[in-house]
Fold:
Amino acid sequence: MKKNLAIYWVVFSFLCAGMVSCNKSDSYDDVELTPYALVRSFSLGNIRSAYPAFTSSGKDTTVMRTVDMSGFLFTINQATGEIYNNDSLLYATDVSKVVVGISADGVLAFYNDSIADYLAYNSRDSIDFSSPRKLRVYSYDGLFHKDYTVKLNVHQLNPDEMVWNEWGAVEGVVPARVVEHDGMMCLFGSKDGNNVVAISPIEGEPAWIVYGVAGLPTVVDFSTVQSFGGALYVVADGNLYRSDDAENWALALTEGNLVAVAVASDDAGELVVVGENGFFSSKDGLSFETGGAVPAGFPLYGVSILSYPLSHNKNIVRYMTIGYDTPERDGRARVWSRLSTEEEWADYENIGSKYTCPSLKGLSVVRFDNFLYALGGAGNVNGAEVGAFNSFYISKDNGIAWKEPSDFYHYIPEGLAGNDSPFAVAVDSKNYMWVINSGDNGAVRKCIINRLGFKK
Structure:
């Protein structure tokens, strides 16, 4: 072991202080110098740092914040001599001047690069953790030491930034609806005038295989496709059809006047379809019961449906049905909701508000990052005409108010903005939003907000 006089002076001073505090009649022979050298705990306190933010006008800036980091727990691997935090510190945290708390058996010293040697640790001094630091514990008897490497992990990605990836369009397919089914993404639409489904794994680069569909009428509104109980359902020619593999379909409910699927909730175990004669509900997707009449203004056309448990009671599920009440799929977008424990639907009319649901061509609403995201082609937003894919419109209060994001993290990528070709939107179980469109600038695009992809 390399002997460092400075370290031994620290050890000697520590021992002398301890002996002075003892009873004057105590003999030095009573002091036992232990051979232990071990770090028992490592913690952080407050760290003051400049973090990215936005001005009131939306411009990039930074603000100084003091953040309590005591909640970040550290792992001490005694076998490998590693000390690190499993959960990374906040993005952009400055770790060049950090005061740490360390409990140890022995005397602590950090390696100093400028003198190529160890210097005694002072709990009041800040330490630069911009890169891993060597920490050594000397036993009080001066005969042993143990070395550690301390690393402060900091998120290198802005957690709130939206990141997009893009691939070529699904060749020849005009998209109408994309859903996740059995670990795959299923894109329904038409190719050369025929009904088709293109299937790709949800992870990695999309690899689409296009199949024809069997058992469906020639005219089918694939925008009504929904997933429930491990099967897929679609309304065609006024009836409900069911498929286990997205390719082969069979009649599930014959009514002759069905229009759309209004609820498909695996959380609540309920499938509801709606038509001119009212609602029909099922617990298994095979047998249906007649429900109540359809209230005036209820969205039947071009609908997006969502269901998710309440944050304060996971046993109650909120249903959202958003779309239009006219076959032309125009006019005011309608937002209706009910809870799984209720019978009646509520109309979130919100007339007079300047934050109503946008009325867009092909309006699509998905639940992303625990909020509702609306996007679509050209249309009307609170009385103003907007172009195709002008922006996201986000509701953070379950469909009552809809606003454009006020930051630069949420954005529509170039090539999609202004593109008014047919499209389909979905969010998969890996927290990725898929936007697939056709035409000259058609593409398959996936986006994620960085923190949704962080490992817990």
Summary: The first strand starts at residue 38 and ends at 44. Helices lie at 5-20. The mean pLDDT is 91.
